[in-house]
Structures are given as C-alpha cells and as structure tokens.
Design goal:
Elements lengths: L10 E8 L5 H7 L3 H13 L5 E5 L3 E8 L3 H9 L5 H7 L1 E4 L1 H11 L11 H15 L5 H20 L9 H12 L8 E4 L3 H14 L4 E4 L3 H11 L2 E3 L4 H7 L2 E4 L19 E5 L16 E5 H5 L4 H6 L3 H49 L5 H24 L5 H11 L6
Parallel strand pairs: 5-6, 5-8, 6-7, 8-9, 9-10
Antiparallel strand pairs: 1-3, 1-4, 2-3
Length: 416
C-alpha cells in the first residue's frame, strides 16, 4: 500500500475473531465497550497510527487499519480487552491488503454474518468510521472503503432477496419462544435491557406473540420509558428486577454489560422460567442454568437456528458476490488513482510555475496585456492538460508506472 500515498505505514490489515472459531465466552473476553473502543483509538493515535477502524458486536471484534506489522493491532486489542495474545492466536484471523478489503466487503454486506443476510453490522461499520473520523484517526482510504461497502450493502439489499424474511437475533429469540412455550399470549414476559437488540426483540414480541403482558426494565429508566411509551408497555424500576423475575414466565436479557447482570441470587421461582440471554459477553451467570425449573438459552444456541428462510437466502449469494466484485473494482480503480495523484499534483504545480513566469514576462513585454484574461485562459489550459494526463494514467491498457516515470523525467518533477 506504500505506493498509494495513503498512510505512513506499509500495509492495511484486518485482525479479529468471530463466531466461527470463538465461542461466546472467548468473544466476551475480547469484546469492547464504546468507552473501550474510544480509548483504543486514542492510544493508537498516540502511537502514530493514521487510519484505524474498530468494531465490536455480539458475533465479532475486529480492527482494520494501517500498521507496519499486524502485531501492533493484536497488542492494541489485547491491551484494551480481557483477552490475551495467546488466546487470540488460537482463534484469530489476520488479513492483509486486498484480502482485508475483501473481508470488510463480506462482513458489511451480510455474507459473513452468523445469520446470512443480517445487515445490522453495516450500521456499526458506519458508527465505527464516524467515531474514528471524530477522533482524527480516519484517512481518505478508510472513508472511501467504508462508503463503498455501504453502497454495496444497499445494492444487495435492494437488488437481491438475500435479506428477505425476518431472521435476526431478535427474531430468532421470539421464534424460539413461540416454538417452545405454549399459550404464549397468556404468559408474563420481562425484557431486561432496552438497547438496540432489546428494542428489536420487543418489537418482534409484540408483532408475533400478540402478548399484552410485557414489562420493561433498564438500568437507565428513561430509556425503558421511551420504548415502553412507544408500545404502551409497563415499565418498572431497576430495583424491582428481583420482584419482577418472581412473577415472570419468560425473561429476555439484552443488557450488553461486560459482566453478568442476572445472578443465581436474583432468581427465586417455583414455576418454569425460560431465560434468553442475547448478550455478549453473557449477561446471565452460568450458575443460573443449574436452578430447578429454570431453562437458560444463550445467544449461540439462538444464532444456530436455521429455517427455510435461511436456506432460501443461500441461493442469492452468487448475486450478492457479483455486486461485491463490481464495488471492489470501482474501489480498486479509485485506489489506482491514488498512486499517481502526487505526480499529477506536482505536474500542476510545475505548470503553474511556468505560467507565472510567462505571464510576468508577457506583462512587461506586451503592450495592452490583460493579466486577468491571461490568468483565466492559462488556468483552463493547465486544467485540461492535467486532466488529459490523469485520464491517460487511468486507462487500464496503459503501463502507469512507466508513464509516471516519463512524466517526472520530461517535466523534471522531484517528489518528496
């Protein structure tokens, strides 16, 4: 990547881990909170990195950035999470340059999601870029790449049926409840946590179960009130959690905390209680599953549910891959223009210097010389000349390296 004049560092890498080789417990160790990502990016900037994205979801944690060696990214991740380098090496992947670019396209377009066609990740990629940009650690390459992935994602969603049917973590949880709980409309349901997954689950519960007995609890009550008001649901204080668990038949936990929020001590029930934990790391302590009358279902069990919808989606993978290849070609063409951008810029400066010298000479020699008109005409000529050279270099049939060398030689251009 050093030929493209994008970063001070040699190569673009992706390092990370996902659901394919890392279970919930391991993914939980490497997961990053919002504050953790901000601290990681801040540290990276202090270390001299000039282009870095960080994403952490329930299914994956990844860093995408320019470094001299991928270990710099591995160390950043381990220093800001609860995982170790040794654990990372056992389950991780590292991609470089074109492979890293291709990987981000597959992730952002839902082809690498645990649930095929799940497009929730694209909003997190947008957030990741905006966060990096606000912290001053995003460069033109990352901006162009993220935009290309976003556009490819939109095309796949609009032009194929790979995301047809409701199949997400939120929907999978409701699907599980409906298949395993009888008389669902009569059961008491408690939703603990009203973040994005919690809100989506809440909407799916209302839509598919027609259950009027849904109660919301969130550490920050205002957020629960906002969701509860939208759907006309009961909202309780965080301090009422234990009492509400006693009354409920189904507990859905989506708090997104870094440590378990539902412990064995919170649960005292003599009737069947189904608990669904939609969080990574796990927010329901594993000891809870040992309690009598209690069934705990964790995220991985829900994510592995396959149905006719998922099977149907697979037939649209080839269409999606064609769109991705088209987007990658466009991105690569833009990337190639970065290779000769410094030469075109230097050429323009050289022509401007020649213009200034010539206009100065003609203003002294030619009577009635109009410098304003001459300035306009010469600027337009320079613009046309540089555009002609740029179009020549973009031609896929042209050896751009040889052409760049010739331009520098003819115009005596020295690049820094």
């Amino acid at each position: 990547m050093e030929d493209y004049h994008i970063s001070e560092h040699n190569s673009f890498y992706t390092i990370g881990l996902n659901y394919k080789k890392a279970d919930e417990a391991v993914r939980g160790k490497f997961s990053l909170s919002e504050a953790g990502i901000t601290q990681l990016l801040t540290t990276a900037k202090e270390q001299g990195l000039d282009g870095l994205l960080a994403t952490s979801t329930c299914n994956r944690t990844e860093l995408h950035g320019f470094v001299q060696h991928p270990y710099q990214l591995v160390k950043l991740l381990c220093d800001h999470s609860n995982g170790t380098v040794e654990e990372f090496q056992d389950i991780a992947y590292i991609y470089k340059n074109n492979e890293a670019i291709g990987h981000l396209f597959r992730v952002g377009t839902g082809l690498d999601s645990q649930i095929l066609g799940d497009f929730e990740i694209i909003s997190q990629i947008k957030q990741s870029f905006n966060r990096s940009k606000n912290l001053g650690i995003a460069n033109p390459f990352l901006e162009r790449l993220c935009n290309a992935v976003i556009q490819a994602s939109k095309r796949i969603k609009n032009e194929t049926e790979i995301s047809s049917g409701a199949t997400s973590v939120a929907f999978a949880s409701v699907q599980y409840i409906m298949k395993n709980v009888s008389d669902i409309a009569e059961k008491n349901i408690l939703l603990f946590g009203t973040g994005k997954i919690g809100r989506n689950t809440c909407e799916n519960l209302i839509k598919h179960t027609k259950n009027p007995h849904i109660t919301l609890i969130n550490r920050t009550k205002e957020k629960a009130v906002k969701v509860g008001g939208k759907f006309n649901l009961t909202v309780k204080d965080y301090g009422d959690l234990q009492a509400e668990i006693r009354k409920t038949d189904i507990l859905v936990v989506a708090t997104g905390a870094q440590k378990p929020t539902v412990s064995k001590e919170l649960i005292h029930t003599k009737k069947p209680l189904l608990i669904l934990d939609l969080s990574v790391p796990k927010n329901v302590d594993e000891e809870v599953s040992k309690l009598e009358h209690v069934t705990v279902v964790y995220l991985d069990q829900l994510s592995q549910m396959t149905d006719e919808t998922l099977e149907r989606r697979k037939q649209f993978i080839p269409e999606a891959e064609v769109i991705i290849e088209e987007a990658k070609v466009d991105f690569t063409q833009w990337l190639e223009t970065r290779k000769f951008a410094p030469v075109i810029k230097a050429l323009k400066m050289k022509l401007n210097t020649m213009k200034v010298e010539e206009l100065d000479y003609q203003s002294k020699k030619t009577s009635g010389f109009n410098p304003e008109h001459a300035e306009i005409i010469s600027d337009r000529i320079i613009q046309k000349i540089t555009k002609q050279f740029a179009n020549h270099l973009k031609d896929e049939n042209v050896d751009s390296d040889s052409s760049l060398e010739l331009i520098q030689k003819v115009f005596q251009i020295q690049l820094d």
